[in-house]
Amino acid sequence: MLSQEQIDHLFVFCKKHYVRYYDLQLELVDHLANAIEEKMKEDPEVLFETALQKVFAGFGISGFAKIVAARTRSLEKSARKLRWKFFLAYFTPPKVAMTLCIFLALSSLPLYLPGYVVCLLLIFMLLLLLFFEMRIFRNTNRLVKQQKQPLLVTELGIEQPFLTAFLTFQFFEIFVNDDAFWNQPPGTIRLDYAFTVFMIVLMLAGLQAYRDHAEKLMVHAREEYPEAFQPA
User: Fold this and answer.
1) Are 87 and 202 in contact (CB under 8 A)?
2) What's this model's pTM, rounded to 2 decimal places?
3) In angstroms, how far apart are the furthest CA atoms of the chain?
4) Three-state DSSP class for residue 147
């Protein structure tokens, strides 16, 4: 069995070879330790450092890069599946009915209000969505800052999409420079307005799913890698 000092040396070795994520370091250290122990059993005279270099040479010229890349792809795939799972879970029958009612209500506003009022209401809704998005990101960043060590599983799972900023840019491109929309009388519904409302409702669902996913992921990471976090 390797000593604690030798195990600590393996962590330092992984960091020197550009493995900065603690969860990947754990996997590699476990693999290295098992392989080194096998070599030391085969040849009791072999030194720890010599065995380490022999094991590392087996990874090829790229070192740990291929393993890190493969693990990253795997975690990215898992993170996408989890995000979709939380997103689709949002659309249960009661929530779908509520979402549809909100969309129909907002989409019908141009039937009763002049264009400039509708535009101001859209701007207000986008600002509310942006506020909600920034609040979620602030809370998830607060959770990430509790980590003493970076974790690939949380970095990939809590990637921030900045959806509202993109939608706001599209909105201003479509409407702000459109004098016809600002000045149109009540009684007209435009497809681009309905699409913008649809995107607002959809992004609200996406942000709520992102929040739930991030919170659950951080709970799982804290249970799986307690040494990577500050004491609660």
Assistant:
1) no
2) 0.71
3) 90
4) strand
